[in-house]
Predict the 3D structure of the following.
Amino acid sequence: MSVPRIVPVLALISALVSAGATIFIRQGLRTSGALTGFWINLAVGVVVLWAAVAVTGGPGPVSAKALGYFVLAGLVGTVAGRLFRFLAIERVGASVSTALINLNPMIATLLAIMLLGERVTLPIVAGTLVIVIGTVLLSLSGRHVGFRPRLLWLPILSATCFGAVSILRKLGLGGAGPIIGTAVNATTAAVVFATFMLATGQRDALIARGRPLAYFVAAGVLENTAVFLNIVALGMGTVSVVTPLYGTSPIFVLLLSFFFLRGIEVLTVRVVSGTVLIVLGIYLISALAGR
Protein backbone atom coordinates (compact mmCIF):
# COMPACT_ATOMS: atom_id res chain seq x y z
CA MET A 1 0.00 0.00 0.00
CA SER A 2 1.37 3.41 -1.02
CA VAL A 3 1.96 5.88 1.80
CA PRO A 4 0.83 9.51 1.16
CA ARG A 5 3.80 11.88 1.03
CA ILE A 6 2.29 14.10 3.73
CA VAL A 7 2.52 11.25 6.28
CA PRO A 8 6.32 11.27 6.78
CA VAL A 9 6.25 15.09 6.76
CA LEU A 10 3.68 15.19 9.57
CA ALA A 11 5.58 12.54 11.52
CA LEU A 12 8.83 14.50 11.28
CA ILE A 13 7.16 17.78 12.26
CA SER A 14 5.63 16.08 15.29
CA ALA A 15 9.11 14.78 16.20
CA LEU A 16 10.53 18.32 16.00
CA VAL A 17 7.71 19.76 18.11
CA SER A 18 8.15 16.99 20.69
CA ALA A 19 11.87 17.83 20.84
CA GLY A 20 10.99 21.43 21.61
CA ALA A 21 8.80 20.20 24.47
CA THR A 22 11.73 18.19 25.83
CA ILE A 23 13.91 21.32 25.93
CA PHE A 24 11.29 23.19 27.96
CA ILE A 25 10.83 20.19 30.27
CA ARG A 26 14.54 20.06 30.97
CA GLN A 27 14.56 23.77 31.74
CA GLY A 28 11.60 23.48 34.10
CA LEU A 29 13.03 20.47 35.92
CA ARG A 30 16.05 22.51 37.00
CA THR A 31 13.97 24.15 39.74
CA SER A 32 10.79 22.06 39.95
CA GLY A 33 9.74 18.42 40.23
CA ALA A 34 8.72 15.87 37.60
CA LEU A 35 5.21 15.38 39.00
CA THR A 36 4.52 19.11 38.86
CA GLY A 37 5.77 19.36 35.30
CA PHE A 38 3.75 16.35 34.25
CA TRP A 39 0.53 17.79 35.73
CA ILE A 40 0.98 21.18 34.02
CA ASN A 41 1.69 19.33 30.78
CA LEU A 42 -1.61 17.43 31.06
CA ALA A 43 -3.70 20.43 32.15
CA VAL A 44 -2.48 22.55 29.24
CA GLY A 45 -3.24 19.71 26.86
CA VAL A 46 -6.83 19.38 28.06
CA VAL A 47 -7.51 23.12 27.64
CA VAL A 48 -5.86 23.40 24.22
CA LEU A 49 -7.37 20.25 22.77
CA TRP A 50 -10.96 20.89 23.85
CA ALA A 51 -10.63 24.43 22.49
CA ALA A 52 -9.57 22.85 19.21
CA VAL A 53 -12.63 20.56 19.29
CA ALA A 54 -14.91 23.58 19.75
CA VAL A 55 -13.23 25.62 17.00
CA THR A 56 -13.43 22.77 14.49
CA GLY A 57 -17.18 22.31 14.90
CA GLY A 58 -17.53 19.86 17.77
CA PRO A 59 -16.57 16.24 18.36
CA GLY A 60 -18.43 14.74 15.42
CA PRO A 61 -19.38 11.05 15.33
CA VAL A 62 -17.54 8.94 17.89
CA SER A 63 -18.11 5.22 18.32
CA ALA A 64 -18.07 3.62 21.76
CA LYS A 65 -15.22 1.33 20.67
CA ALA A 66 -13.09 4.28 19.49
CA LEU A 67 -13.80 6.10 22.75
CA GLY A 68 -12.61 3.08 24.67
CA TYR A 69 -9.38 2.87 22.64
CA PHE A 70 -8.57 6.54 23.27
CA VAL A 71 -9.37 6.25 26.98
CA LEU A 72 -7.00 3.30 27.17
CA ALA A 73 -4.43 5.27 25.15
CA GLY A 74 -4.69 8.03 27.74
CA LEU A 75 -3.90 5.57 30.52
CA VAL A 76 -1.11 3.69 28.74
CA GLY A 77 0.60 6.44 26.77
CA THR A 78 -0.21 9.74 28.43
CA VAL A 79 -0.33 8.72 32.09
CA ALA A 80 2.19 5.89 32.18
CA GLY A 81 4.44 6.62 29.20
CA ARG A 82 4.68 10.38 29.64
CA LEU A 83 5.01 10.18 33.44
CA PHE A 84 7.83 7.65 33.17
CA ARG A 85 9.45 10.00 30.63
CA PHE A 86 9.41 12.92 33.07
CA LEU A 87 10.77 10.76 35.88
CA ALA A 88 13.46 9.30 33.61
CA ILE A 89 14.66 12.75 32.49
CA GLU A 90 14.78 13.86 36.12
CA ARG A 91 16.48 10.80 37.63
CA VAL A 92 18.49 9.13 34.85
CA GLY A 93 19.37 12.10 32.66
CA ALA A 94 18.14 13.27 29.29
CA SER A 95 20.79 11.56 27.14
CA VAL A 96 20.42 8.02 28.43
CA SER A 97 16.64 8.39 28.81
CA THR A 98 16.21 9.59 25.24
CA ALA A 99 18.26 6.68 23.93
CA LEU A 100 16.23 4.03 25.74
CA ILE A 101 12.84 5.66 25.21
CA ASN A 102 13.61 5.69 21.51
CA LEU A 103 13.32 1.91 21.48
CA ASN A 104 9.55 2.45 21.18
CA PRO A 105 9.51 2.39 17.32
CA MET A 106 10.72 -1.20 17.35
CA ILE A 107 8.11 -2.12 19.95
CA ALA A 108 5.35 -0.42 17.93
CA THR A 109 6.47 -2.10 14.70
CA LEU A 110 6.43 -5.57 16.27
CA LEU A 111 2.98 -4.93 17.76
CA ALA A 112 1.69 -3.63 14.40
CA ILE A 113 2.80 -6.85 12.70
CA MET A 114 1.26 -9.07 15.36
CA LEU A 115 -1.97 -7.17 16.11
CA LEU A 116 -2.83 -5.08 13.05
CA GLY A 117 -1.54 -7.38 10.34
CA GLU A 118 0.46 -4.59 8.74
CA ARG A 119 2.70 -5.54 5.84
CA VAL A 120 6.17 -4.48 6.88
CA THR A 121 8.64 -4.25 4.02
CA LEU A 122 12.39 -4.62 4.17
CA PRO A 123 12.98 -0.83 3.85
CA ILE A 124 10.71 -0.20 6.86
CA VAL A 125 12.51 -2.79 8.97
CA ALA A 126 15.95 -1.58 7.87
CA GLY A 127 14.99 2.06 8.38
CA THR A 128 13.61 1.37 11.86
CA LEU A 129 16.80 -0.40 12.92
CA VAL A 130 19.03 2.31 11.46
CA ILE A 131 17.04 5.09 13.14
CA VAL A 132 17.20 3.36 16.51
CA ILE A 133 20.96 2.77 16.21
CA GLY A 134 21.55 6.34 15.06
CA THR A 135 19.51 7.97 17.79
CA VAL A 136 21.14 5.82 20.45
CA LEU A 137 24.56 6.99 19.22
CA LEU A 138 23.39 10.59 19.23
CA SER A 139 21.74 10.43 22.62
CA LEU A 140 24.73 8.80 24.27
CA SER A 141 27.01 11.53 22.96
CA GLY A 142 25.66 13.98 25.53
CA ARG A 143 27.46 14.95 28.68
CA HIS A 144 27.69 12.09 31.17
CA VAL A 145 25.04 12.09 33.88
CA GLY A 146 25.48 9.80 36.87
CA PHE A 147 22.59 7.52 37.84
CA ARG A 148 21.91 4.22 39.53
CA PRO A 149 21.61 1.34 36.99
CA ARG A 150 18.39 0.07 38.56
CA LEU A 151 16.66 3.30 37.48
CA LEU A 152 16.94 2.26 33.83
CA TRP A 153 13.52 0.63 34.19
CA LEU A 154 11.99 4.13 33.98
CA PRO A 155 12.90 4.93 30.35
CA ILE A 156 12.42 1.29 29.29
CA LEU A 157 8.85 1.29 30.64
CA SER A 158 8.24 4.63 28.95
CA ALA A 159 9.38 3.16 25.63
CA THR A 160 7.10 0.16 26.05
CA CYS A 161 4.08 2.37 26.82
CA PHE A 162 4.76 4.68 23.86
CA GLY A 163 5.13 1.70 21.55
CA ALA A 164 1.81 0.20 22.68
CA VAL A 165 -0.12 3.48 22.53
CA SER A 166 0.53 3.86 18.80
CA ILE A 167 -1.49 0.69 18.25
CA LEU A 168 -4.35 1.92 20.47
CA ARG A 169 -4.52 5.28 18.71
CA LYS A 170 -4.48 3.64 15.30
CA LEU A 171 -7.40 1.42 16.33
CA GLY A 172 -9.28 4.38 17.81
CA LEU A 173 -9.05 6.38 14.60
CA GLY A 174 -11.37 3.85 12.98
CA GLY A 175 -14.32 5.39 14.83
CA ALA A 176 -13.32 8.94 15.78
CA GLY A 177 -11.51 11.97 14.41
CA PRO A 178 -7.96 12.84 15.50
CA ILE A 179 -8.90 16.02 17.43
CA ILE A 180 -11.61 14.50 19.61
CA GLY A 181 -9.48 11.38 20.02
CA THR A 182 -6.52 13.39 21.28
CA ALA A 183 -8.79 15.41 23.60
CA VAL A 184 -10.27 12.25 25.13
CA ASN A 185 -6.75 10.84 25.45
CA ALA A 186 -5.49 13.90 27.37
CA THR A 187 -8.62 14.31 29.51
CA THR A 188 -8.51 10.70 30.67
CA ALA A 189 -4.89 11.12 31.72
CA ALA A 190 -5.56 14.43 33.54
CA VAL A 191 -8.53 13.08 35.50
CA VAL A 192 -6.76 9.87 36.53
CA PHE A 193 -3.53 11.63 37.54
CA ALA A 194 -5.28 14.43 39.47
CA THR A 195 -7.42 11.89 41.32
CA PHE A 196 -4.35 9.89 42.26
CA MET A 197 -2.44 12.95 43.50
CA LEU A 198 -5.37 14.21 45.59
CA ALA A 199 -6.06 10.74 47.01
CA THR A 200 -2.43 10.33 48.08
CA GLY A 201 -2.20 13.79 49.66
CA GLN A 202 0.22 15.22 47.08
CA ARG A 203 -1.89 18.19 46.03
CA ASP A 204 1.07 20.58 46.47
CA ALA A 205 2.69 18.92 43.46
CA LEU A 206 -0.19 20.20 41.31
CA ILE A 207 0.90 23.80 41.81
CA ALA A 208 3.69 25.62 39.95
CA ARG A 209 4.69 29.28 39.87
CA GLY A 210 7.13 31.60 38.16
CA ARG A 211 9.59 30.47 35.53
CA PRO A 212 9.01 26.70 35.94
CA LEU A 213 5.31 27.28 35.27
CA ALA A 214 6.12 29.13 32.05
CA TYR A 215 8.47 26.37 30.91
CA PHE A 216 5.96 23.61 31.68
CA VAL A 217 3.09 25.46 30.00
CA ALA A 218 5.18 25.88 26.85
CA ALA A 219 6.15 22.20 27.03
CA GLY A 220 2.49 21.25 27.42
CA VAL A 221 1.44 23.18 24.32
CA LEU A 222 4.23 21.63 22.24
CA GLU A 223 3.85 18.12 23.66
CA ASN A 224 0.14 17.93 22.93
CA THR A 225 0.58 19.50 19.50
CA ALA A 226 3.09 16.78 18.72
CA VAL A 227 0.67 14.08 19.88
CA PHE A 228 -2.09 15.56 17.71
CA LEU A 229 0.12 15.68 14.61
CA ASN A 230 1.25 12.14 15.31
CA ILE A 231 -2.36 10.93 15.50
CA VAL A 232 -3.21 12.71 12.23
CA ALA A 233 -0.25 10.96 10.58
CA LEU A 234 -1.38 7.61 11.99
CA GLY A 235 -4.82 8.21 10.51
CA MET A 236 -3.35 8.46 7.01
CA GLY A 237 -0.41 6.08 7.26
CA THR A 238 0.71 2.93 9.02
CA VAL A 239 2.17 2.53 12.50
CA SER A 240 5.33 0.98 11.06
CA VAL A 241 6.02 4.14 9.01
CA VAL A 242 4.82 6.91 11.34
CA THR A 243 6.28 5.67 14.62
CA PRO A 244 9.92 5.27 13.48
CA LEU A 245 9.87 8.77 11.98
CA TYR A 246 8.34 10.20 15.14
CA GLY A 247 11.18 8.42 16.92
CA THR A 248 13.70 10.77 15.32
CA SER A 249 12.87 13.34 17.99
CA PRO A 250 16.23 12.77 19.81
CA ILE A 251 18.20 14.20 16.88
CA PHE A 252 16.15 17.39 17.13
CA VAL A 253 16.63 17.41 20.91
CA LEU A 254 20.39 17.44 20.45
CA LEU A 255 20.26 20.15 17.79
CA LEU A 256 18.05 22.36 19.95
CA SER A 257 20.19 21.62 23.01
CA PHE A 258 23.21 23.02 21.19
CA PHE A 259 21.45 26.38 20.91
CA PHE A 260 19.26 26.51 24.02
CA LEU A 261 21.00 24.31 26.61
CA ARG A 262 24.50 25.68 26.68
CA GLY A 263 27.36 23.27 27.31
CA ILE A 264 25.38 20.04 26.99
CA GLU A 265 26.29 18.70 23.57
CA VAL A 266 29.66 18.44 21.79
CA LEU A 267 30.17 17.60 18.12
CA THR A 268 31.99 14.25 18.09
CA VAL A 269 32.48 11.33 15.72
CA ARG A 270 29.57 9.64 17.49
CA VAL A 271 27.32 12.63 16.77
CA VAL A 272 28.30 12.70 13.10
CA SER A 273 27.83 8.93 12.75
CA GLY A 274 24.46 9.06 14.44
CA THR A 275 23.31 11.90 12.20
CA VAL A 276 24.26 10.00 9.05
CA LEU A 277 22.39 6.93 10.28
CA ILE A 278 19.29 9.00 11.07
CA VAL A 279 19.25 10.54 7.60
CA LEU A 280 19.66 7.10 6.04
CA GLY A 281 16.85 5.66 8.14
CA ILE A 282 14.50 8.52 7.23
CA TYR A 283 15.26 7.95 3.54
CA LEU A 284 14.62 4.22 3.78
CA ILE A 285 11.23 4.72 5.37
CA SER A 286 9.88 7.84 3.66
CA ALA A 287 11.23 7.28 0.14
CA LEU A 288 11.12 3.50 -0.19
CA ALA A 289 8.36 2.29 2.16
CA GLY A 290 5.58 2.65 -0.38
CA ARG A 291 7.36 0.92 -3.27
Residues 6-288 form one domain. DSSP finds twelve helices and no strands in the chain.
